[in-house]
Amino acid sequence: MVSVAFVAAAASVATGTQQSTMLPPAAPDDGSKHGILRTVWDFTFRMGLRYIKNSYKDDPFRTFLEVCLIAFIIWYITKQKYNIGTNEIVLSEKEIDELVEEWAPEPLVPELTEFEREALDKAIMIDGPNGTKVRLASGSTSKPVLNFASYNFLGFIDNPDIEKRAIETLRKYGVGSCGPPGFYGTLDVHMELEKQLAAFIGHSAAILYSQAFTTTLSVIPCFSKRGDIIVADEGVCFAVQQAILLSRSKVYWYKHNDMSDLERVLKDVNKQLVGRRGKNALPRKFIVTEGLFQNTGDITPLDVLVDLKRRYKFRIILDESYSFGVLGKRGAGATDHFNIDPHEVDLLIGALSLALGASGGFCCADKDLVEHQRLSGLGYCFSASMPGILTVAASDAIHALEAHPEGYLNNLRENTALMRNSLKRIPGLQVDGALESPLIHVRLSPEALVRMKRSGGAWTKTDIDRVLTELTDEAQKDGVLLTRAMYVDEHERLLPNSSIRICVSSAHTRKEIEKCAHAVKSAVSRITSKKR
């Protein structure tokens, strides 16, 4: 720091007071006010000169440094300031009016195509509670229809025991907390469910999110940032794709469920990092995939994935939204299905709104990673916490699954096998997805499209979508509710072929499964005969 004495001496030189050094020794104090001030001044000045001589005679660098600092302060104070208004463009009233007239705002929502308008007009509305049987708000009949369009894999949506407990919870906790978890939104049931999820999965800790969709959107950008690397499956669903986009990481895609192509990409990525220097010399590297793919019904080979992770030093982010409660002996997901230690998966994401019939999502990870999300997970910090009623519903569903895993899971697998075998016997249909997957995609086979006449040339995706919509309408007439799989076409990384998505539930009976297959067969027969 610049010494006070040095600044005082410099100031005295600048103001011409240096001549005071020629003054005779201080006169004795005569007791007057003027005499006291002169005595103090003389003493101070002499001590300042003595300090400067002693401080700077053997330290020229200090003198140089302080002179430079004073020069910088003077330059900074006297330099010309930047005027932000120097580039202002002044328009006349006429020019402003002309610009306003020429301006044409873009629509907030793009115009719907003819087919999109048709699909919107035919949108199905359920009148009453959801479940394996539902009543439709519109339709030719008021009778309940079998619901094969809901992700109610274990039948917990209309479970009477869970419904009873939910009503009791509603009276105790109210509708919602109306606050984020880190402020005043955390309830005792939230903490209990987090412990229960971690124990059920077999991981170190868990964190709850209030919405399933935003769980993935929050977890991936929370850990993978700009400069980091993500290697992702081309077939991941829209939520995972958007989460990867939000992370702003360097992204490499590998062919859907192709472990040979994944290994090729991992080798290329590591090769690019050899000899790399700088602050991003060691970026975080993640493999991102789904346990059970929403868009295809395939199951990722997690055992091979873990082996590649160890070999090439990557971390795994696994979205188990559709596999949690479905795969494995206990229904704990892909890690349970392949008998893999859950700690091999660095970040395990799941949904409570699908198989468990509640709401929200969760992430299981090591304790430090979970605590990091409590401070940096946007979906956790800035969203109201999960309502107590849905938290208890999810907890009760896990308790029920733990108490009777064979009853729920064996029935689900038997129904899935029966549905797949019945659909495969229908001419003109192509049944896709893993054998254990209750999420089944049904497509018109290429042979069926060839047999069906179409004026105007080759079949387009819109043409096939329109035929599949007619097929679901025909099935609805037979008392079976199906849905066509829909995608955000412009933003899908790998747009799947048009399909009808059939969701099997353990709550469906054998007779209901056969009725669904028969309705699909009749609908295909009527549609294909009409198009010939």
TrEMBL record:
Residues forming coiled coils: none
Highest taxon, organism lineage: Eukaryota
Protein name from the UniProt record: serine C-palmitoyltransferase
UniProt EC number: 2.3.1.50
Record-annotated Aminotransferase class I/classII large domain positions: 144-519
Keywords: Acyltransferase, Lipid metabolism, Pyridoxal phosphate, Sphingolipid metabolism, Transferase
GO molecular function: serine C-palmitoyltransferase activity
Cofactor names: pyridoxal 5'-phosphate
Protein family (similarity comment): Belongs to the class-II pyridoxal-phosphate-dependent aminotransferase family.
Transmembrane as UniProt keyword: no
Pathway assigned to this chain's UniProt record: Lipid metabolism; sphingolipid metabolism; Sphingolipid metabolism
InterPro entries from the UniProt entry: Aminotransferase_I/II_large, AON_synthase_class-II, PyrdxlP-dep_Trfase, PyrdxlP-dep_Trfase_major, PyrdxlP-dep_Trfase_small
Keyword Chloroplast included in the entry's annotation: no
